[in-house]
Each structure stands twice: as C-alpha cells, then as structure tokens.
C-alpha cells in the first residue's frame, strides 16, 4: 500500500483522527507521518511504546502491592518471622518459612523468574538422576496435556519416552546402590581370574 499523501513511498503508519465526530483514516509513509506528527501537539508517537509499557507496569505494580499487603500478616510458627520482615531483609528465618510463606513466595518466583520450578542445568556434582527425574516430570505434564487435547499419537510417543527414561533412571540408581567395596572385590576377583 502506498502513502496517501505523497504516493511515492510505501505506507508504514495508519493514522486515524477524529475531529468533531468525523473519523478520518490515512495510510502514511514515515516521512509524511513526521510532517503530521508536527501538526498534532502534545503527542510523541516515537515514545508510544514507552507510554504503554509504563501504564502496564503501573497496573502490575499496584496488583503486586495489593497481593503483598494481603500476605504481610503471615507469620512463621517456628521462628516467628513475618512476611513483612522477609520483604525488608530478603532472607528467610528458617526452613519452615518456605512452607509458611509458600503462596507469596511462589507468586514472587513467578514474577521474577517466570517459573516456580527449576528448568535449567543441573550442577556438576549433583547426581545425574536428578536431571532424568526433571525430564520425566516435564514429559508427564506434556503427556497429560496431549491426552487432554486428544493428541493420542503424541501421547504414545511421550509415554514411550517416559518409560525409556524410567528404565535409564532405575539402571543409574542400581549402579549407585552397588557399594564401592563390592566393586573392588569384584575387580580383584576378575584380576585373579586373568592371572590363572
């Protein structure tokens, strides 16, 4: 679509003005839009995204403040810490605080990280079965969704993948259950058999 003012450049903007109840719509190129922008006082179209963003942030911050006000009265039964104290210092008093403040902490984690469950990499020293369990849990959620959406072929594939990972997890756990001493003794026996 070409600019309705100059007729030379392609239109990138759709300008709608309402004057005395009459609606006028025009498709304009960036150059002609800049000319019209100068004629409209008090509106900065280049900062429109910033204006919308600040409106949305203000709305969400008011909602967050309202939620936080609801939770300020929560108290940990074990250490006596209140949720308001947690908000000030940013640290929990004891392990029981995680259960006492579970609802607001989940909401906080959702706002900050976008998720309430770890979905990243597992540290090197941690047992590799943890990663497999996380994959199984994630796949089970996908399986439930696929069944709900009646995508049975996808559900069957997910089911098979879950079974394979479960078998792999069982093998890893059985390898860990073998005591190091038993491994040494079996290795010594194999070495003795090699010498014969």
N-C termini distance: 89 Å
Helix content: 55-70%
Could you say which structural class the secondary elements and strand pairing correspond to?
mainly alpha
Whole-number tally of structural domains: 3
Count of alpha and pi helical runs = 8
Strand content: 5-15%
Averaged pLDDT: 76
What is the count of β-strands?
A: 2
Order of helices and strands: EEHHHHHHHH
Integer-rounded radius of gyration = 31 Å
Please describe the biggest sheet, giving its number of strands, its sense, and whether it closes into a barrel: 2 strands, antiparallel
Which strand order spans the largest sheet, edge to edge or round the barrel? 1-2
Low-confidence stretches: none
Shape: flat
Indicate the topology:
Layout: E1 13-19, E2 22-28, H1 30-39, H2 48-71, H3 83-89, H4 97-100, H5 102-113, H6 129-148, H7 152-177, H8 180-195
Helix pairs in contact: 6-7
Descriptive notes:
- It is a single chain.
- This protein folds into three domains: 1-40, no CATH class; 57-113, no CATH class; 129-195.
- It has a two-stranded antiparallel sheet with strand order 1-2.
- It is flat, with a radius of gyration of 31 Å.
- The protein has 196 residues and is mainly alpha-helical.
- Helices cover 61% and strands 7% of the residues.
- It has eight helices and two strands; from the N terminus they run ββαααααααα.
- β1 and β2 form a beta hairpin.
